[in-house]
Each structure stands twice: as structure tokens, then as C-alpha cells.
Amino acid sequence: MSKERAQRFNELIKKELGKIIFNFLDAKPGVLITVTQVLTNPNLFTAAVFVSVYPSSETKQIFDKLTRSIYQIQQLLNRKLKVRPVPKIIFKYDKSPEEAAQIEKLLEQIKNEK
């Protein structure tokens, strides 16, 4: 699979999973769940789906829900995508938004000290 095609395929999975998770999970008001990145293996059998959760205190609860309902989410994704095989999804926690916020906070502190 070409690099450009793989990127489009990853974006398609990201978009569809974002919709599915938004409709499927019953998150508390004020909890933001974002599919940040999808990395599909070249053999198309598995896809690592990176998810960020805000506030981070809700991360464990959201990932427990995702883990318990991964079978149903996979089935919904299989119905949405018109490609075969549909990669098996594996949810992973994306820490990059938290790390970016921490860096911003540190930069602001340095700015204020000057």
C-alpha cells in the first residue's frame, strides 16, 4: 500500500471511529474523547487507535468502557467501511495533549519569571 493511500485509510478509520465512539459511549457531560491518530499495520490486520480523554481524571473509566465494548465498536466499524479486511482495532492512550499542556504551562512560568 502506498504511503498516501495508507494515510487516507488511517484518516477514514479515524473519522468513522470518532463518530462511532461519540454515538456509542455514554460519557459524562464535560468529558471530551478524541481519536487523535490511527496507525494501521502494513498487512492491514491491526490498527492502533490513539485516544485522548479530557479531563485526564476520566481516562481509566473511559478506557474501561472502550475495552468492554470493543467487540460492538469493531462490528459497527466493519459495517461502515467498505473494505476487506477491516483491521482489528487496538485502543491506546494518547498522552500528547497532556504533555503539550504541561510544556505550555512551563513556558508560561518562564515567561512570567523574566
Overview of this structure, please?
This protein has 114 residues and is α+β, with helices and mostly antiparallel strands. The protein has one domain (3-113): GMP Synthetase, Chain A, domain 3 (2-Layer Sandwich), CATH 3.30.300.20. It has helices at residues 3-24, 59-68, 70-80, 96-113; strands at residues 32-40, 46-54, 88-93. It has a three-stranded mixed β-sheet, with helices on one face. The protein is globular. The termini are far apart. The mean pLDDT is 86.
CATH class: Alpha Beta
Number of structurally distinct domains: 1
The CATH topology label is GMP Synthetase, Chain A, domain 3
Radius of gyration: 17 Å
CATH architecture: 2-Layer Sandwich
What does the largest sheet look like?
3 strands, mixed
Order of helices and strands: HEEHHEH
Number of continuous helical runs: 4
Could you tell me the mean pLDDT?
86
List low-pLDDT spans: none
Q: Tell me, what's the shape?
A: globular
User: How helix-rich are the residues, as a percent range?
Assistant: 40-55%
Strand order in the largest sheet: 1-2-3
Distance between the termini: 51 Å
As a percent range, the share of strand residues is: 15-25%
Structural class: alpha+beta
CATH H-level name... which superfamily? Answer: K homology (KH) domain
Topology:
Elements: H1 3-24, E1 32-40, E2 46-54, H2 59-68, H3 70-80, E3 88-93, H4 96-113
Parallel strand pairs: 2-3
Antiparallel strand pairs: 1-2
Helix pairs in contact: 1-3
